[in-house]
Design a protein that fits this description.
With about 130 residues, this protein is α/β, with parallel strands linked by helices. It has three helices and six strands, in the order E-E-E-H-E-H-E-H-E. Helix 3 links the parallel strand 5 and strand 6 (about 120-125). The longest helix has 16 residues, at about 40-55. The termini are far apart.
Length: about 130
């Protein structure tokens, strides 16, 4: 557990490692997010939201650089999570930064769409 009280998540072929440093919570995704990960991913992101909203001034970094694939149903979990952040009063909203792998074209397209959906909340960095 981290100071944010977030466990890591692992299933066959997919994992999320959680790290905390100060007011930053980093979620490192690895593998393939497919149909078998939809429900656990949705529950995990709901947990992230609950834990982060309890801390003022938090930042969430979502590191996708080692994520090979994510299907649209898993991607929808992120849309819903970001919608929850947008539903908060402005003073309580937190920032989400996606670190992406510029070599994975699906990440560039998908994450830019997320950024356009929530420019006040989402930033995308490509490495």
């Amino acid at each position: 557990m981290t100071s944010f009280d977030m466990p890591t998540f692992a299933s066959p072929g997919f994992a999320i490692a959680t790290e905390a440093q100060g007011s930053t919570l980093t979620l490192r995704f690895r593998g393939n997010a497919d149909m078998s990960t939809i429900e656990p991913l949705d529950a995990y992101l709901r947990r992230v939201h609950a834990v982060v909203t309890a801390r003022s001034g938090a930042l969430v970094v979502v590191d996708f650089r080692s994520l090979e694939f994510m299907n649209s149903s898993c991607f929808k979990c992120f849309v819903e999570w970001i919608g929850q952040v947008q539903d908060l009063p402005v003073a309580e909203q937190y920032r989400i930064v996606f670190d992406s792998n510029r070599e994975m074209h699906w990440q560039r397209r998908s994450l830019n769409a997320l950024r356009c959906f929530a420019m006040e909340v989402v930033t995308v960095d490509a490495r």
